[in-house]
Amino acid sequence: MAEDLFSSPTPFTPPTTEEDRLAWLGLIRSRRVGVSTFYRLMAEHGDARSALAALPEVARAAGVRDYSPCPPDRAAAEIDAAAAAGARMIALGEAGYPAALATLPDAPPILWAMGDTALLDRPMIAMVGARNASSLGTRMARKLAEGLGEAGFVVVSGLARGIDAAAHHAALDIGTVAVQGGGVDVSYPTENAALCDSIGARGLRLSEQPMGMQPQARHFPRRNRIIAGLARAVVVVEAAARSGSLITARDALDCGREVAAVPGHPMDPRATGCNILIRDGATLVRGTEDVLAALSEPATPPHHHTAPRQTAPTAHKREPREHDGAPLAGGAPQPVRDRPAALREVAALHGQILDRLGPSPVAEDQLIRDLALPAARIGPELVTLELEGRITRQPGGMLSRAD
Hints:
Blueprint lengths: L17 H11 L6 H11 L2 H14 L10 H14 L2 E4 L7 H4 L7 E6 L8 E6 L5 H16 L3 E4 L5 H9 L4 E4 L13 H10 L1 E4 L12 H11 L2 E5 L6 H11 L3 E5 L6 H11 L3 E2 L3 H7 L44 H18 L5 E2 H8 L3 H13 L3 E4 L3 E4 L2
Helix pairs in contact: 1-3, 1-4, 2-3, 6-7, 9-10, 13-15
């Protein structure tokens, strides 16, 4: 909107009572009320209860009939669900709301936080990148996250597979924040469920979405903007020419944050986005020192690490796994492992191997460690892929992707 959302002379204050908090939540959860509308209504009416009362008339003036705001019992149920999950509501203007995020004109009115909220008081660096990360990209993400943590920064990312997960894992002991696309009590993707639980217990999970909300595609642009808004800089490690990571980088520029990128091989599609960012002026990152040099005021390393308060583990559904097909006692074959299932399993493993490789050679033992599978399981498939011409074996036990 071209109109200033805060142009009204009527000020509004953060919620100070449980009734105020219920009204804030009810207003932002009401149909057709997004962030911009929330702030406009607050600026016009001064508080959420008055804005809620005015909503039906506002809707009628806009030509919307039979409009009803979010019922109080629905907002109350969300607050109860948050309490059961161990989540805390933080409203804009309250103590504890991230100061960097509060500077954005479209900052989320409320956030649900699960874990160590003291991390919000520390400076943050965002790390984002490809979901189908290569082994080299994963190693770089871990190295950067560890170095930035040692320099005093909290690592913030989006809990996606690939680069996000690698950065979160490396920063668990030094401080990490996961901004989720769904409800803060929802583990997504399911393969990162254990990591999600660990972050809730040892780091911090954040979301502006309702409790229990399954992530939807339309949520992720907002999630990305929150990541950029929290951070002093966004570091991109592997990104295709069209990817959500580049959207986060653009959001960072809009928010006045630094943008940095790790260069990659020009023949690797996963490096195209990063190379474009560097061409367009992003800081080239070879290591932690390059990120710190791009910041005018580096963070001060913490003198000691205080263990965050523990939260109750969040329930999540795990996807069923195919049986590994090991023989039963007496050598009888496992009946559930039919040939089509075995072929699908091999094809999936080939895909994982190829996703980890690119034009730049990777050590075979490093690839095996990254896949977290026995060498005896991976070795024959490497031979198969080599015979098919899909990977190339280099001197010194190095592997690269052939296509």
